[in-house]
Amino acid sequence: MGTLVEEIFSRKAGREVHAGEIVLVDVDTIMSHDNTTPLAIKAFREIGKPIFDKNKIVIHFDHAYPAPNLLAAEAQKKGLDFMKEQGITQFYHQGVCHQVMIEEGFITPGAIVIGADSHSNTYGALGAFGAGFGSTEIGVAWVTGKCWFSIPQTIRIELSNATQPGVFAKDVMIYIAGKLGMDGGTYRSVEFGGEYIGRLPVHERIVFSNMSTEIGAKCGLIAADAITLAYLAAETRAQGSYEQILPVNPQYEKIIAIDVSTIEPQVACHPDVDNAKALREVEGLAVDEVYIGTCTNARYEDLEIVAGMLKGKTVYPHTRVIVTPASTQIYKKAMQNGLIEILMEAGCTVTGTGCGACIGRHGGVLAPGERALTTMNRNFIGRMGSPLAEIYLASPASAAAAALTGKITDPRLYLA
Amino acid sequence: MGKAWTFGENMNTDEIIPGRFNITIDPLELARNVFCEVKPDYAARVKPGDIVVGGQNFGCGSSREHAPVAIKGSQAKCVIAASYARIFFRNAINIGLPILECPAAAADITEGDEIDVYLATGLIRNLTNGHVYQARPLPAFVMKIAKAGGIVNFLKNHDVQELMA
Question: Has the ipTM of the complex gone over 0.85?
């Protein structure tokens, strides 16, 4: 009996657990990437004990891959040497870790996945528990196969009705971040539900779980349903049986009800995610870079929206428009269906897959005084390079509109 | 006794140590750039035993452990904040950076105050204005990790099950 997070942990603990309890449980998968693996290796070496089960370990190179400089290259070589030494074979460099985790079938309903990346919350979109941890805990879990968890209280966000045309999950989530604030979900499990979520395809559900991190949440969960199972079967390599876990007589700390039909296109303005405004309030603000990428919004359907808006047109001449597909699987599909060609014809720079410009080290670094409109999930000062640059967050459609005009523009003017 | 360095609300990991410096894991190297954008003189002028004081939601943002490692590398004695972001809290405990949660101290301490901190009891004394604050005690198993100097040291000599024993 309990909220979704309580139900997931009750199954793992083998007894009913509730918010406030601390449990030590087995984890299903332990994820890290090129940026966070070196410190995990350091912790692992210091502990001096063997790996518990290498089949639980997944390592991705995505943050700065291929290495843009010597230091990154050296760190990645250390990671590779470690994987060879330990016989770790679940190694991927086919895009942003969270997307590849889903595609490769590591994320299934009820699984407990810990990741050395704050956006590991993403996995909640498929009814799995996913949360971000520091590298040391990842090294510890390599040795123990376990992790301690404090079972969080749950905030339920009940989303009713349907969005207006031109309004996407990203707009709704930015709106929620604006309402709750950056610490509105701290230490909490945020459970997204309601008729809007019930009809939403998985690629849009992911935006909510992914950005639950931005309101401080421990996890952002959506109960698995028929849509989840169909997605797992069609889009991922997930195999085996898994239980569809649902909340049972849940006791929520708070229930927040939002009618999504009242929401118009949103922008999270410089310099905080909760600095949410209706797009029209900042319409006309010039942008030097439009970045369409990341674990939030660079899936096939996102690229389809952007290509649909840019088809036969040319992007604004003095605005860099960079498209970084989230994964190789997405890139291939986009290529096969002609989207990449449309984007290139329109003047976009299409890069290899991975985290790209989001981490400020390569693939679209911002100069002092520049302003970017991006499909990313966070806009901290200095995130994309210069601390004197500004980052605005919006939906892929809003990004495409800005790509055409070189300024923040209502996407509804360009959506068919 | 140490000098207080104060920081605002929602101090995020990019402000603690910008992503572009996270190409190393060396604590002293990271410490050279810690807080470089929000308090450029911190890295050069911080002295061993000084105290970092933050507001609500200290350490929010990325899961990067480089943030508490950079603060520990700067030889600050501990962090006092009104509250912490979840991952930063875990990371600090796990790497052995002492952290105290104390909204009263966070609100009252001003930059440059001379502060005495008793980590074992959570007592904080402000020698500049004479005020005394009591930090919330840490859960028992967290104290076990903190006392061992971090989870890695704990696991060298203990089984993970002993955390909950």
Answer: no
